[in-house]
Amino acid sequence: MNRKLILGFFAVILFFVFNGSYAHGQALSEWLIYFRTQDDYLQFLQTYQSRVEDTGSSFVVKARFSSDEIKAVEQLPIVSRVEPNYQKTLAETTAFNDPFFFQQWGLRTVGAETIAPSRDGQNLLDGREVIVQNQSFTYEEQPLSASSFSFLLNGMKLSRLSLEMDHVEGNWRLEVTDGQGNELAANEGNTAQLDVLLPQNRTYDTIHILIQTNGWSKQPIVKKAAAVNHVTVAVIDTGVSVHEDFCGNVLYSLGKDYVDGDGMAVDENGHGTHVAGIIAACPNNGKGIVGAAGSAPVDILPLKVLDAQGTGGDFEIAQAANDAVAMGANVINFSLAGKGKTLVLEQAISQALLNGIPVVAAAGNWGTSLQDIYPASYPGVITVAAIDEKGGVLPYSDYGWEVDVSAPGANIISTFLNDTYKSLSGTSMATPFVTSEVAMLKAEHPELDVIQIRKMLSETALDIGEKGYDIHSGYGTIQIAKALQASPKAALDWLIIKNGQQLNFSQPQLLGVSNGLVGKNVYIWLDDQLILKKKADRTWISVTLPDIRSGRNEKTLKVIAVDDTGTILATDERLIKTANSSSASFSDVPASFWAYQEIQRAYQQKLINGFTDGMFRPNQSLSRRHAVMMMNRLFHWPLHHIQPPFADVPIDLAGALSIYAAYDQQVVTGYSNGSFAPEKLVTRAQMAVMLARALKLSEHPFSGTPYPFKDLSDPGHFAYDAVQQLADKDIISKQDYFRPNEYLTRAQFAALLIRASDYLQK
Question: Which residues form the SLH domain (predicted)?
Fold first, then answer.
């Protein structure tokens, strides 16, 4: 049989293989098919042109065949080789297929791109038993031709229920009741889908659904019934328009228009749609962008308070905030700002916060002080500054002690009007990144309260700009993945005071107490002096701090919450500035004084304070209490409970916490009668023992070559090993006499602390 006859024979076989039932049901894959000669190559192209997708040089084609078909192709005498068209991917790892994902630098900056892109899109009604006209069956999103039906849920938690109808002839009403017939929620409108928010503080065994369509000519069919347990974010803005990149998570039918008062929150500006997209654009749908909370179960409640020009009044904004609380929102986003404080808006925001709803607000874009910018400056609001792609704060981002954190705000691409996408800049864009983090924390830990969330944001933020808190970036740039990995804990947080802030002591301050600490005892110390002890009877405590004079222009403000056994449940500590003058140049410590340099360094390291008259009193003897207080400033001993270990060290004694911590660390043990004798002067020998214990040098006997102190040569002396250890580390000067029974002076201890500090740095 000649070559042409053979080729014809195979062509007939392949015709039946490719077109008959033999290949039915098999998926087609891409294959690379090679040929020896141009004649073979051209013959294949002529015969199987419908399967060839592309051609290349060196007699190779790319074609699509099923796995069975390719076996027959390999047998063709004109084919020299067959290979799969193996697929390669970018070396950069990403699980998102959204086209503009690589332009979303903000996601990478806040760590959102590392979170798995798996939105909880599950319809919780799927697979549940539904009862329609006394007939029970499993619901699999099939159409339901009934005006009432029930779902059996067996203790399920729900946040929202939605019905989608096959057609709309006008207004219709959706009502949801529980198993006892109590109304849970209702909504009315003329859109194909209606949504209702359900009470989230309960579980549901049964829900009944009733549809009312008075006057419709045709009985509607429920195309889909869906229920979810999502976090609801109220976006109080210009409204939110329908967009291709939202995946059923924008609750249009529940939206409100406070500008025109005509129902749904239709966006005429684009700003609110942009903000909503930053939070909740659908991930992995092959369209547009990825929302910062795109991997979390989040719904958007659009509330329109700003007109087409982006302007609105406090009255309407307050109405929207109050409605968000009443409707059951879990987070409120304010990407808006302006001058002027009103009682109506302040009360609305306070009500939201006291109901456990975090409020996130933009700092504003005037490059000015936040002192008169609202809602950002209301107490308890999480205020957001904006940064650029290089990590610097935008020059027009407002600044002040009100700033809490910062987030990306320059050239942020997001959803816009008419199914488009647009890049915008400002603190308005930074705010929804923070709102996304809050929403994701609420989704992961629904029990979190406002104070816990504030603490988690600040403690996990990436410090930028000045070290520590600063008035431009706050505690730093948010880190979503890091916050989600943190373990929730009870928290205390000052709602107005920031670290390093100068205070007006005549102004009451607000201390935030997380829910788990309500009913517990709260203690407040200012510069080691107890100024308040009370039982926390609410989540906000108003405190007027006394202006205690000291030798510094800053004071340590410490708050501790404890249970009835004295076990510490939460702490907060920060430095506050005062108007007092401050200088390390003590009038009684001239530059010629032997410990001048050490005293200067000790003051700079905040180990010593001096007195309010500008003196240090270097030759004054030191009490045991003050010695322990100064040591604790160097060692920062942990404290786990505040039960007094000594009868003569009550909790209200200045420095009591340092003594308790030193006792826990076994640095001090007290006397045989159970006392500490806090005002007793400390000897040089006693100091050596305490310091050696603090440095962990007394855990083993001294084994080196002892220095021959003439007045401390007896190894049996209680301070012998401690003195030798300290001398060996050059913390104690090696002189002929140690003078163990002399009282320690303030200058001597300052020098010892600096040498101990240097030793710890080695």
Answer: 582-640, 642-705, 706-762
Residue 209, number of CB atoms within 10 A of its CB:
22
Task: Confirm if 240 and 273 have CB atoms less than 8 A apart.
Answer: yes
Catalytic choice (230, 243, 271, 472)? 271
The yes-or-no answer on residue 428 being catalytic is yes
CA–CA distance, 665 with 119 (Å, rounded to integer):
49
Catalytic member of 40, 237, 314, 721 = 237
CATH 2.60.120.260 fits 121-228, yes or no: yes
Identify the architecture of domain 96-119+230-488 in CATH. Answer: 3-Layer(aba) Sandwich (3.40)
Q: What is the pLDDT of residue 4?
A: 47
Spell out the long-range contacts of 590-594 with Cβ–Cβ below 8 A and sequence spacing 24 or more: 593/618, 593/747, 594/747
Q: Give CA–CA dist 30/22, Å, rounded.
A: 19
- Domain 3-84 adopts which CATH fold? Alpha-Beta Plaits (3.30.70)
**How much is the pLDDT for 26?**
52
- Please tell me the predicted confidence (pLDDT) of residue 6: 44
237 is catalytic: yes
- What are the residue ranges spanned by the domains of the chain? 3-84, 96-119+230-488, 121-228, 490-582, 596-636+672-761
Catalytic residue among 428, 458, 473, 623: 428
**pLDDT tens for residues 111-148?**
987 775 554 568 999 999 999 999 999 999 999 999 99
% residues pLDDT > 70 (the chain) = 93
| Mean pLDDT confidence for 601-617 | 91
pLDDT digits (tens, 9 = 90+) for 190-227: 999 999 999 998 999 999 999 999 889 999 999 999 99
How far apart CA 414 and CA 516 sit, in angstroms, is: 38
